[in-house]
């Protein structure tokens, strides 16, 4: 399907032309659908009161294998924000840098979700209270919000017509939107003509990595300083052998290992669940269609790009893909 006019084609390279063609096509598609269409007929929405302890909230998320939950202010009967395992590393770094070890452990174990929201905003300028939108909003605008806020999920919030109070409808993630695209787009040939690298999908220049011997607290610092959610784990030859992401910090919290963040990556990943999916890899010369096909079949959060010798080449996140699709 050709979206870009033939006049513009004369001024653009083949890659730029195809990139614009894809982006116009997907943007038009997303503008025709809204958030309600992605809410399953049967689903579970996890909601925490702001007075709940952060440690208990994280334990519930881990037990139910969920990454995010909505926060509810019962006093004001209003949506308060979003609790995400991705932001746990910010809390850990804040307390370990500003307080003694004993104080840090005590505060992390006793902080309420309302305090968690305050720490994120005051010290990292992260405002989860803005991570909401109407379920009637177009998927295009919701996608732009996800990208601009640099988040992976938002809460769809409706309004009760009588009481005018918030009604929490569902959470909506970047993965759900990309899966919706890959499952409903029939014109798939537009995704085949160029590689991920040619289209500029992913990060290939600044390749941050760690080893099995790297201390967990050093990984936490890498997450925050570089605004990333995963670091590849390489051996002494530079070969990819694993990956450590922000959600791994949940297991550390659950196992009570916060007392010693000098533990190594190798020790920390032993606490993962038995059904851990492993590291998903691709090649930077794969086309976008192959990635979308994999995402349609399986919930994958990111791909580590490697060469034929399994050496690190880059990282492709879901945000990278969605950012490309909507320009």
UniProtKB/TrEMBL annotation:
Organism: Smittium culicis
Record-annotated CBS domain positions: 201-261, 273-327
InterPro entries referenced in this protein's UniProt entry, alphabetically: AMPK_gamma/SDS23_families (IPR050511), CBS_dom (IPR000644), CBS_dom_sf (IPR046342)
Keywords recorded for this protein, A-Z: CBS domain, Kinase, Repeat, Transferase
Keyword Cytoplasm part of the UniProt annotation: no
Gene3D superfamilies named among the record's database cross-references: CBS-domain
Name the record gives this protein: 5'-AMP-activated protein kinase subunit gamma
GO molecular function, one term: protein kinase binding
PROSITE patterns cross-referenced by the UniProt entry: CBS
Origin organism lineage: Eukaryota, Fungi, Fungi incertae sedis, Zoopagomycota, Kickxellomycotina
